[in-house]
Amino acid sequence: MKYFSLNNIAPKTTFKDAVIKGLAPDKGLYFPEHIQKLPQSFFESIDSKSDVEIAFHAIKEFVGSDIPQEILKSIIEDTLSFDFPVVTLDDHISTLELFHGPTMAFKDVGARFMARCLGYFNSENKNDVTVLVATSGDTGGAVANGFLGVKGVNVVILYPSGKVSDIQEKQLTTLGQNITALEVDGVFDDCQDMVKKAFLDTDLTSKMQLTSANSINVARWLPQMFYFLFAYKQLYKTHKNIVFSIPSGNFGNICAGIMAQQLGLPIKHFIASNNANNVVSEYLKTGTYKPKSSIQTISNAMDVGNPSNFIRIQELYGHNFETLTSNLSAYSFSDDETKEAMKSLYRNYNYIADPHGAVGYLGCKTYLENHPKAHTVFLETAHPTKFLDVVEEVIPTQIPLPKQILEVIDKPKVSIKISNYNDLKSVLLK
Ligand SMILES: *Cc1c(COP(=O)(O)O)cnc(C)c1O
């Protein structure tokens, strides 16, 4: 399988090279040259297959010959070492829980898969690779955990001091081994700017192999297709016409769902559920795509003003506005509506959702107003205890901390404080 750049200037490349580079040299996102549909019989007998088998068949064409099939299978087995349960709330609404992994947000699957692919590609290489990431919260934890102990790969994470939740900070700073946490005196944008500067610094890149692990990397994006197949497997006997509502920020997760649809998975419709960051819902209304600066909300992993993966969705629907709008709806919700949704989920179903999942639930409710027969599934992208301050303010109950959180909460934090690019460079070159 070859990948081309959506900017169409850089040459086509392999899966391996696309994973190592992250972004194409012309700054475009990589996209697979073709998408091979799975046979209909695959979907008709999906409940006789294990999650690992399903995932293997979904992704094998995209990896091609760059990873031998037996090794790819074991990478998938390692990646999927937890459950993806669907919880049905009523005849028209279910939720797919994607928070049972080690850092309790859906990014675990992409990070774990990418880490293992990179570990494999680097196994013959004598020089270590350094993965450099800036995080506003969830990405750093998932990447740190996913890459922990992977040979030949060092991970350096930059996070804004005092701007991530206590639990998120623990998930970044307590692992040790090949993970280094840099606590930046600044905001997320400062972290991001330093990372960008490092990638362009030839003095640095001539001395070390730098890689990024953000959501534009094909190895983080594509495994998210699995979720939609796993949900279908659990629901298809009881519900036809499944509609997914995806709490969206950079639109990587929803775009992976559309990829699963292109593999032949019968998904009726997609709902992009957004907080106040409404570039896409405005675009679907007006036909004009206007990126904005991001607005801070209680569902902060979706505070994105210019979603980087939206261009892939355009590609998937042939850059045709009508095809796009017939397959995708997008709605935007305020923080107050989100809090109300958390309350009503708790009151009506005894279900505790995190703010991101609650935005997804609101997407279902809005869609059902005009499509009362549909069965909608919202993705619950993080465990509610990751956003404890918001959840405890809204829901009148104490939530027991899950074991993944208890494991890190009392470990000592280890971080290196930095305040500028020179500090970063001297840490990297040490
Ligand atoms: C990253 C994240 C999202 C947004 O996912 P995208 O793929 O960027 O659209 C939603 N919810 C949570 C909890 C996240 O961490």
Multimerization status = single chain
Largest sheet geometry: 6 strands, mixed
CATH class of the domain at 83-106 and 221-401: Alpha Beta
**Percent strand:** 15-25%
Structural class comes to alpha/beta
What is the CATH architecture descriptor of the domain at 83-106 and 221-401?
A: 3-Layer(aba) Sandwich
pLDDT < 50 stretches: none
- DSSP strand count: 14
Helix content bin: 40-55%
Shape: globular
C-alpha-based Rg, rounded: 21 Å
Distinct small molecules bound, one entry per kind:
pyridoxal-5'-phosphate
Number of distinct helices: 20
Integer average pLDDT: 94
How far apart the termini lie comes to 38 Å
Question: How is the largest sheet built, in terms of strand order?
Answer: 4-5-13-10-11-12
| CATH topological fold name of the domain at 83-106 and 221-401 | Rossmann fold
Question: In words, what does this structure look like?
Answer:
By secondary structure, the protein is α/β, with parallel strands linked by helices. It has a domain at 83-106 and 221-401: Rossmann fold (3-Layer(aba) Sandwich). Helix content is 44%, strand content 16%. The chain has helices at residues 15-21, 40-44, 51-63, 69-79, 107-121, 138-147, 166-173, 188-200, 202-205, 218-221, 225-235, 252-262, 279-286, 310-316, 321-327, 335-349, 355-370, 388-394, 403-409, 421-429, and strands at residues 2-5, 13-14, 30-32, 86-90, 93-97, 129-134, 153-160, 179-184, 209-211, 242-247, 269-274, 328-332, 375-380, 416-418. The strands form three sheets. It has a six-stranded mixed β-sheet with strand order 4-5-13-10-11-12, sandwiched between helices. A five-stranded parallel β-sheet has the order 9-6-7-8-14, with helices on both faces. Strands 2-1-3 form a three-stranded antiparallel β-sheet. Strand 1 and strand 2 (13-14) form a beta hairpin. Helix 3 (51-63) packs antiparallel against helix 11 (225-235). It is globular and about 60 Å long. The mean pLDDT is 94. It binds pyridoxal-5'-phosphate (PLP).
